[in-house]
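#struct-help
A.M.: can someone run this one for me? Single chain, 209 residues.
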Amino acid sequence: IVSNRWRLKLFRWYQNFIMCFYVPVMAGQLLAIYHFWGDVDTVTDCAGTFFAFVACFFDYLYLIEHEKSILHVCELLESSPIPKVNTPHLVELYLGIVEGCRREIRIVMRCFWGLALLGAIKWLIYNPVTELIINRHFSNTSFENDNKPDTAFVFIIWFPFDATWSPLFEIIYMFQSILLFLAACHNICANSTFITFMVHAWGKLEIAE
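D.P.: on it. Structure tokens below:
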């Protein structure tokens, strides 16, 4: 991406666009907490989801803010994983340790992204089909109730206008689904980055021994 100016510019636009995804949803959650204040179950459920999104949002901001430093550390870890030695036996031992670190990182990454893929299938395919098509258009369920949160949405949210009419309901639903998936990806990126650093640090300590 960095080698191409247009790709880099598109990537910066993408970063800013994704940040805009968080604002209306978190605003809707804050309004829901205020609107349903007194309903302990609803407020605690909404507050838990809200703070989870806040954590993912700041994870994303941290990665963007320290992007150059993180990339620099990754380059150092990958470019000079072993000390300079001339003994073939030690070189083979060091390479084995480095390969073990890389193998463990690959396993962790595949587990993380496998779970993200399952979440994407549920949030972006299964739930929209069942909720937006089957339950909403082929059942007689009523979605309008101002005293209780709308359980048909992905998570609790409230706006000072009717958000249950089509196609606004479908737009907000997909907006929530996409944000939920992106928030999970941002959390995975942040956690996997620091896990990678820890595994590399462990490998360095093994080499030092």
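A.M.: thanks! The first helix runs from residue 5 to 35.
D.P.: also worth noting: The mean pLDDT is 76.
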